[in-house]
Amino acid sequence: MTQLILFTEIENETCILLAQRINPSKNFYLKLNGPGGKAIHEKNENIDVCVIRECFEEAEIVLRNEKLLKIFEETCYSTEEWKAESCLQKEASHIVTLAIYIHPLEEPPKHTEPHNLGPWNLYKIEELLKHRNELIPILEKNIELIDIKIKTYEQDILELPINAQKLEEIKIKMGKQPQRTRETFNFFNDIELEIPEGEVPEIVDEQFPILALNFGKLSSFEIQTLIKYKKKIQELIRPLRRIEHKIQTIEKSYKGFKYLSIFDRIERKIIAQKFGENPTIAELSKDNIILHKFRDTIFEFEIHKSSTNKLRYFKLCLSKDQTQINGTTNGKQTWEFFHKNYSKLPLI
Predict the structure, then answer these.
(1) For residues 279 and 197, which has the higher predicted lDDT (pLDDT)?
(2) Which residues contact 65 (CB under 8 A, 6 or more apart)?
(3) Which residues form the Nudix hydrolase domain (predicted)?
(4) Which of 47, 67, 168, 328 is paired with 181 by a 20 to 30 Å CA distance?
(5) Which region, left, alpha or beta, applies to residue 170 given φ > 0 means left and ψ of -120 to 50 means alpha?
(6) pLDDT given for residue 259 in this prediction
């Protein structure tokens, strides 16, 4: 099992990204944790891959291998499969490995699992040291270690084998650049150096990770090469951003409302074959079985309009609260209401 600490600095204070566990049926209810979770051992997923996958699933943040630093690993016997309940070997039913990683926070997180986690927020390490009991056990036990390792991160990350090798490679490649890139970095001597954009050389993709790792020791010349590289990347990803935006719009529209979700799994295919894509309430009401099935049912719904305020479609799902509607509906209504007011509006 993994825990990831994404860290940043705000007003000279170290902050880490955490969310509250809000699913009462899961362990450590209301405790704070970072992105992380269980390795898929059936697929032989290793622990490094696990933390990268979990971070993307829970916060849609992409981690870079060369910036990911494991600071803690412990394996113990346990009486539970996904919880480190230490015990004697003869009492154990599982062997559990716990690991903590750290990585700089480089993009805003997204709240992708609202059923399990509250919103992502930044917490000051200094405050967490005082209120460690609010953390899940593995973080509560190791909060001092996390604090220390964040402070020594820049040096520790350069010593990883993956980065040591790349640093050596970049020294060779950068040796082919003008002499000023190899001078000892001096910010005050270098600050006025400006080169016309057309004369700034383009860096290759393999050079970027090493320059990024040395972000505190870059010359103005190197920074200008990175800015030119950024513009190139922006041009490449602009079409992908448009596609992403369209997909996000569709995803937001359908989230929580599976197609024909008011019907059970077996019925959906039959209904879709009979009525086609996005049937209307009027069409569905022609079927007496459907009419009888939903006569006294209460639904939650959302009406969607176009930019010109024209009704486009509505989303419908079964309400968890099936008590009689009286007064304010709060987004709930009956089949009769939809048949009367929105009978020709496509249903998703």
Answers:
(1) 279
(2) 48, 52, 162
(3) 1-144
(4) 67
(5) alpha
(6) 60
Q: What is the CATH number of domain 2-159?
A: 3.90.79.10
CA distances from 308 to 10, 62, 278, 305, 312 (A): 43, 37, 21, 8, 10
Please give the Cα distance from 72 to 74 (Å, whole number): 7
Structure tokens at 230: 């950024």
What pTM, to 2 d.p., does this model score? 0.50
SS3 labels along the chain:
CEEEEEEEEECCEEEEEEEEECCCCCCCCCCEECCCCCCCHHHCCCHHHHHHHHHHHHHCCCCCHHHCEEEEEEEEEEEECCEEEECCHHHCCEEEEEEEEEEECCCCCCCCCCCCECCCEEEEHHHHHHCHHHECHHHHHHHHHHHHHHHCHHHHHHCCHHHHHHHHHHHHHHCCCCHHHHCCCCHHHHCCCCCCHHHCCCCCHHHHHHHHHCCCCCCHHHHHHHHHHHHHHHHHHHHHHHHHHHHHHHHHHHCCCCCCCCCCHHHHHHHHHHHCCCCEHHHHCCCHHHHHHCCCCEEEEEEEECCCCCEEEEEEEECCCCCCCCCCCCCEEEHHHHHHHCCCCEEC
Task: Look up residue 195 and give its two tokens.
Answer: 């080169």
Write down the residue that tokens 């015990």 correspond to.
87
What percent of the chain has pLDDT above 70?
78
Q: pLDDT at residue 113 above 80? A: yes
Which residues share a beta bridge with 334?
Answer: 298
According to CATH, where is 3.90.79.10 located in the chain? Answer: 2-159
25-79 pLDDT tens trace? 888 999 999 999 988 878 888 888 999 999 999 999 999 888 899 999 988 888 7
CB 208 within 8 A of CB 233: no
Mean pLDDT lowest for which of 146-160, 200-214, 236-250? 200-214
